[in-house]
Design goal:
296 residues, mainly alpha, 63% helix, 0% strand
């Protein structure tokens, strides 16, 4: 068991992991246990509960069309499932289609007020399970390894939260979907490699790809464009992870990428940070949809 420690940056985290002689997942499990005042076994048990919620979200989200109170969410995951069952993988592989289907299932569960795991936020909850669990299924990854991966994702999220934020209201959607895709990318790498530089690179690639992403939900509801952005975030995570596993390394350290995200968010207009006063939210069609929702 490690002593109670703190880290603010990925650089700090990496240095402490290397000094400890542990892998990144082992270190983060111990870190969680020490700082929560629980055993490592209890920390693992709690994380396994979160994993099970994610699995249930996918399972339940595909049983029937999910329709939200606003009607902005209208059974997308189920439509992809039916499409797949009737026509198979149209564009690429079946795994590609499953990532779309599973990510939508989780995100739509959130829109329909179901129980989800905020990873790191409710609006970005589909990215991590949609990407990670689909890959885990097809690569026969054990539950234990998946639990370890979730600790890695949590560590990455904690670094982002300490350097910048995980809030769309503060730094735009780059802080929500951007953070989720970084967490997912690092988690995916961790189930295949203990190389902490590869994990950092994947997280950095994923965040870099979404720098500047605004938060412009129609009517302020976490549905359009949020749910479809989860799908984009899931694929961004997978491509970033594969590049890192292939040996490509980030030129800009993860901490600096997150700091850049923070600075961009600070310069972003308040109309583009979860206020529904800019971007897609102010298009004529969006305004008409909001009027219809409020009148109906």
């Amino acid at each position: 068991m490690i002593k109670k420690v703190k880290f603010k940056t990925f650089k700090d985290l990496k240095a402490q992991v290397l000094r400890s002689g542990l892998t990144l997942p082992e270190f983060l499990k111990n870190y969680e246990a020490v700082n929560q005042g629980i055993t490592v076994e209890e920390a693992e048990k709690r994380m396994k509960l979160r994993l099970n919620v994610m699995k249930k979200n996918i399972e339940n989200g595909l049983k029937h069309p999910n329709v939200s109170r606003t009607g902005l969410t209208n059974g997308g995951a189920y439509k992809v499932k039916e499409f797949f069952e009737n026509k198979g993988a149209l564009l690429l592989s079946s795994e590609f289609t499953e990532v779309i289907m599973n990510t939508l299932a989780v995100s739509e569960t959130n829109a329909c007020m179901g129980r989800i795991v905020a990873a790191p936020t409710a609006g970005a909850c589909g990215v991590l399970p949609g990407a990670l669990l689909t890959i885990a299924k097809h690569k026969n990854i054990s539950v234990e390894r998946l639990v370890d991966a979730l600790f890695v994702s949590g560590g990455i999220g904690e670094v982002i939260g300490k350097i910048a934020s995980l809030s769309g209201a503060k730094h735009g959607c780059q802080a929500e979907i951007g953070s989720a895709t970084s967490m997912a990318a690092g988690a995916i790498v961790s189930i295949f490699s203990d190389d902490i530089d590869a994990i950092e690179s994947a997280a950095a690639f994923a965040m870099k790809n979404l720098l500047g992403l605004v938060c412009d939900p129609i009517g302020g509801y976490v549905e359009i464009p949020c749910i479809k952005r989860n799908v984009s975030g899931a694929f961004n995570a997978i491509s970033s992870a594969e590049m890192a596993l292939a040996g490509i390394r980030t030129v800009i350290p993860f901490d600096e990428v997150v700091l850049a995200m923070k600075r961009i968010g600070e310069k972003m207009s308040p109309t583009l940070k979860e206020t529904a006063e800019g971007g897609l939210a102010t298009t004529p069609t969006a305004k008409e949809l909001v009027k219809r929702i409020k009148s109906g």
